[in-house]
Structures are given as structure tokens and as C-alpha cells.
Amino acid sequence: MPVATTEQYAAMLDKAKQHAFAYPAINVSSSSTINAVLQGLTEAGSDGIIQVTTGGADFFAGQSVKNRAGGAIAFARFVTEVAKAYPITVALHTDHCPKDALDGFVFPLLDASEEEVRAGRAPLFQSHMWDGSSVPLEENLEIAKQILPRTHALGQVLEVEIGVVGGEEDGVSHEINDQLYTTLDDAIATVEALGLGEQGRYMAALTFGNVHGVYKPGNVQLRPELLGEIQAGIASKYGTDAKPLDLVFHGGSGSTDEEIAEAVRNGVIKMNIDTDTQYAYTRSVAGSMFSGYDGVLKVDGEVGNKKAYDPRAWGKAAESAMAARVVSATQQLGSAGWSGK
């Protein structure tokens, strides 16, 4: 199926919220990892979200040049073409974009989508993230207020981060401390600034102890019940339905099934998957190299085995390994089997 239209993406998010599941939003950095995501979503019968960071976009453009906006556009056009052959629907998203990267990443991508729409075509992306976690909340929301009208005019969804996700991802890093927990006052300030959809749809990455990267159980204290408390507080203050906010779960590696399930029950409709799929892909490559070293290397003057060192050989195995982790994510989040329903 083609990449989702903005209307289809909105319907996807509505369906997830109505039926209490979440979509995996998987970071990619190459055509091979894109194919792995499409394979995994298809095997699971799940729609999903494919996303790219600033660093991922840099890699798409080529490591010897600085053209992350061009890399992100290349990513979007590649997925848009190859996704037509798969029986599931995907949306395209740009992940963490801090303040110093807006001019070189999100803003030119909005320009490009506006140009597409003026030409009678669909925007290149269905959603974008502005990551204001490293600036004061007031400034974070002020910048979000400037971006939201542009995404709204394109039918896109804006993602904002309210609070701080610890750890590091593509150069955006934060300490692990009490700032990892969004407060109800933070959420109220967000609604006061951005509304509840009337100014444009947005998703909020509220933080409840989340940490990017790999951590062992017990290193941080996740409190997914905090999301329910914030949802209830907003509903009470503004007289809305029980879960007024569309929520995003960042930094989920190492979370238990119950922690993920509780976050989804409390309104999470998108969960980012990056570390685990990176590892699944690379672990397969390492296995291919170590177990077949005498084929992939020309050892002791031998000629090796072209069928072993052909990148397609170990690349296909790596894609399938990453696809399996994608399937697992859809099962954890409850999106498996929902495509087409």
C-alpha cells in the first residue's frame, strides 16, 4: 500500500487510541533497515511508523557531506516508492530535532512539503518532532506554537517532548535525575499553549522516568501510572474525555511488558523503537561474520567465498533478524493484526 495520507495517519492514531494499542515507531538509517521494518510489519499484520533522526538523515545523505534535509527527503521518497509493494500502511516521521537543528532539518522539510502540496501532491512526511527538552518549558512551548500552524496547514501532526528523556540519542543527551518526570502543571502549560487539537493535532512525549539507550532493570524508575494521573488531571480541568492527550513513549528499551501495557492503557499511541532493532540487525551481522569468517575473509591467502561476503547474503539475514524484533514490538504494543481493520 502507499504511504499513509495525512488523513489516513490521523485515522490510524484515532484507531490506536480507541482500541488501546500503540504503533511501533522504528528508527532507520538505511534502505536495508527500511526493508526490515516493512518486512516485520507485514509479517505481523500491523501498520506502523518509520522515522529518521538528524543523524540517520545525515547517514542517508552520505557521511562525507552535510545534507541532512536532503537525506531525510531521500528517505521519504524511498519509503514512498517501496512501500507500495507491501500490504500494510506506514507513516513517515522525523524524530528528535533540537533547537540548533531546526533550521537545517525540520524547517526545510516543512518547506519541501509545502512545495509538494502547492504542486497538488501529498506532503513528504505525516509528522515531525520538535524536541525542546533542552530548553526551558516556556521557550519549548513558544517554539511549538510557531511550528504547529505550519504542520496543521499541511495536515501533519507535531510531536513535542514535555519533560526530559534521559540518556543519549543522536547527540541529544540528558542526565538521569528528577527532571525525567513530567508534572501535571507541565501538561497544563502545554494545553494552554497548544490547545487540545483545535489549533492543530500534536502528540506529547511526556516523561515518566524514560531513558534512551540500554539500561539494566532497576537503573531508573519508570512510573507509567503518572501518565494516567496527568490524563485525569487534564480531563478534569478541561472537561474532556478520559484520555485527552495523544501520548508517545520514548526510551523504552529494558521496560517490562507490564510497564509498556500500562503506558498504552494510559494513552500512549506511539512507542519509539531504536536500540533494540539496531542490536537485532547488528547481532545478526556479527553472527554471520564470526561463524563464517573463513568465507567472508580471504584467510591465509585463500579466496574466500563470494556467496558469503556478498552483502546481500548477510544483509538478508540481518533484515530478517530486525524484522523479527519489529514483530515482537507489534505484539507488545497490541498493533499486530490491526492492519486493514
From TrEMBL:
Query: What is its cofactor?
Result: Zn(2+)
State any GO BP term from the record.
glycolytic process
Recorded hits in Pfam families, A to Z, give:
F_bP_aldolase
The entry's Zn(2+) 2-binding residues are 131, 161
Record-annotated active site: 95
Q: In which pathway does it act?
A: Carbohydrate degradation; glycolysis; D-glyceraldehyde 3-phosphate and glycerone phosphate from D-glucose: step 4/4
- Which PROSITE patterns does the record match to this protein? ALDOLASE_CLASS_II_1 (PS00602), ALDOLASE_CLASS_II_2 (PS00806)
UniProt record similarity statement: Belongs to the class II fructose-bisphosphate aldolase family.
Enzyme Commission code? 4.1.2.13
Supply one GO molecular-function term: zinc ion binding
Sorted keywords for this record are: Glycolysis, Lyase, Metal-binding, Zinc
GO cellular component terms? cytosol
- Matching NCBIfam families, A to Z? cbbA, FruBisAldo_II_A, PRK09197.1
* Binding residues annotated for Zn(2+) 1, in chain numbering: 96, 212, 250
Q: How is the cofactor bound?
A: Binds 2 Zn(2+) ions per subunit. One is catalytic and the other provides a structural contribution.
Entry-linked SUPFAM superfamilies:
Aldolase
Catalytic reaction annotation: beta-D-fructose 1,6-bisphosphate = D-glyceraldehyde 3-phosphate + dihydroxyacetone phosphate
Q: What is this protein called?
A: Fructose-bisphosphate aldolase
* Top-level taxonomic group: Bacteria
Is Metal-binding there in the keyword field?
yes
Per UniProt, where does dihydroxyacetone phosphate bind? 213, 251-253, 272-275
Role summary: Catalyzes the aldol condensation of dihydroxyacetone phosphate (DHAP or glycerone-phosphate) with glyceraldehyde 3-phosphate (G3P) to form fructose 1,6-bisphosphate (FBP) in gluconeogenesis and the reverse reaction in glycolysis.
